[in-house]
Amino acid sequence: MSDLAALVVQQTLNGVYLGCLYVMVALGLTLIYGVLNQINFAHADFVTVGAFAAFFTATRLATRVLGLPEAGGYLLSLVVALGVGALLGLAVNAAVFAPLRRGDELRPLIATIGVSVLLENFQLWLFGPIPYQFDSPFSRETIRIGRIFFTLQSVLVVAVSAASIAALYAFMRFTFLGKALRAVAQDRETAGLMGINPNLLIGLTIVIASALAGVAGALLGPVLVLTPFAGATVVVKAFAIVIIGGFGNVQGTILAGILVGVIEAFTVQYLGSGLIDLVVFVLLLAMLVVRPTGLIAERKEENV
Amino acid sequence: MIAILAVAALPWLITTPYWRGILVVCAMNVLLALSLNLVLGYTGQLNLGQSAFFGIGAYVSTILVKTYGWNFWLAAAAAVGAAGLLGLALAAFAVRLRGHYLAIASLGFAVITYQVLINWEKVTEGVRGIYGIVPPVRGTLALFYVVAGIAVVVYVLMDNLVRSPVGDTLRSVREDEISAASLGVNAAVWKAFAFGICAGIAGLAGCFYPGFVGTLVPDAFNIVESFTMMAMVIVGGMGTMIGPVIGAIVLTFLPELLRGFGESRLMIYGLALTLVVLFMPGGMVQAWLAVKARWSS
Amino acid sequence: MIRAQGLSKSFGGVRAVQDISLSVPEKSIFALIGPNGAGKSTLLNLLSGVYQPDSGDLVFENKKLNGVPAYARVRLGIARTFQKIRLFKQLTLLENVRAGFHIHQDAPFWEYLLRGNTGRFHKEALELLAFVGLAGRAHERAGALPYGQQRMLEIARALATRPRLFMLDEPAAGLNAAEMEFLLGLLEQMRSRGITVLVVEHNMDLVMNVAQRVFVMDHGVALFEGAPREVQANPAVISAYLGGEFAAQG
Description:
heterotrimer; A: mainly alpha; ABC transporter involved in vitamin B12 uptake, BtuC; two-stranded antiparallel sheet; 11 helices; B: mainly alpha; 14 helices
């Protein structure tokens, strides 16, 4: 295998791995939009909370208190992060989204900005600004196929994301709740008239989305610089992915997520890591100008 | 009138250099809040890109003065122009997008500008920063009078504007673009107008910031500043003239008075913003009007 | 006054308006009727500039309207109201109507900035409110008005533009009998003041009592045009409305 080919394959794989991470974050955002027509600006901070929850579970709880091996500790932290994310979503939904259900779309948006700022700085107060070292035991195991390297961690990430996406898909497609959710996403009023309780389902969606964010945080912990503002570094890309993929569009988000991941991998390789945000956002703005509804077009048209 | 005299008298009552510095910051915040209010409160555009204009104002004016030896006031004028042009560029997005799309696009705008400030080291010195910046007037007291004076002028002019048919037009764009069009309002042009002015004023505030602090680093212009400004506008009362002023004053002084919490300025902003949006969307102005109504009945 | 020739508009695969030609005579009341989904609102949107036609010509007082955006048509003298009421809900009644004078505000910009000029249409705005029966409520919030009065406010606001052609989209929807009477009176008064009125309506009472000419549409195509009595008797029209209001009129 030639040098260039090996490099391309390696970076593409890296990109897919990164992309899966971003998809986990963006998926929650797009789900919430699909069902509520709102953006949760605090989503990235849910990711951060998940990361911290995972960190403390893996390094303190699992190893010291429960005496688990490191690998087990890390896996446990994934589960804990999921739970914490879910709880956080529940809380924010009850406090912010539910009361603001009626009325204009500006208020909930601004409220989530407030929650975001609050969460970030609350964590800053709790944890301080110095980055925490979150090492996953899986990061140290490398697998080598020919000239391509990847760590066990990246395999885990891809596996978990794939599993989550599959689970979500199955849920939406085959369970009653899932179908009800899609109904609410399409037409809240009619769904309500058919006996589905939209508020309950919206709450459920937010919980699922936040749980995903939590797990994403646990997976991202070892990769990111873990400070209370860790989420903010990812939200930029998450929004870009959701817009490029199309708000509320799950398939588009997945596609866009992988795409962004691959773009990042190649950008880092050739341009250095400082410019990633710039590149992604330029892409985002270009997308907004050219095709605001995303890669795979959306539905709605305003009725006059 | 009374307010102006009170403001003018303030620095004489407050004599510690630290608190006088806070006054200057407060005046700058008032300017920033007023500018955002025009585009958010009156024209209804969710603009999160203010930090970019603030930063452009700071960098353009500083570089023109330090590197090219311009006179401060000329440099400030140029900086305001540059910020205004950038505002028009953002307006191009506002014309096509609405609500959350615009929020994200403006956020992206702010992030890109921030990244440019960090990475274009040849011009901006990036994170190393520019040092030894001298304010246009010596002394905190004088600086306060200049910035506060500008804030007062901006307030009066803006107040005139929003009471005039221009204000009617901006609010019609805010309430319903389509029916505004049916009344002959070219929404695109008016949005550009609002964005341009808003950006220019933020840029103007930016001109005084580096001189006040003495050094200039990009970090002062990251997107958190946009959120801060928004918090001031909303907590004070969006869509009114006095609201942003009150919001800016309250949110500048409150964290200082609650020093016991340490580095919690932003946490207070976040909390205040969330609570206000949830329970009192009209901000402190709404609260005041409600109290007044109950008092008179 | 306004003339359409071969107008067509499709959305996706749906041909909302197909090859419609009509001519609205000056200073008359012209009704555009048809069953639900006939394409009436789309046609009105084409006339007012909310949509641009896929093909066809539109001429208003010898000026070509193709490509002219909605807001520009107002200066030419075209005004409209909407099927779904689009008031400025957070503003007061007076502020709503005042906003309607936008194209007539002619003071130089610096006067607004430096002199605090608040426009010169305050009195006229109050007169318009009185015209539609909303006198004395100038400072109430528009969103708080009951439905029928919101409709009247919308009319007052559109009249502020001083139109020569005034188009209303289903103004009678949701009005009670008294409000309908009042609306009929308003339309007549507008006509006697020299305004050409085009009404898109579903409700036959309104049309028969007040219109000089009626244009019937169904499924995007023209069905018939003529005086109200002729329209009532036309078999094609009757069958299009089968079992509807026509049958009741007799």
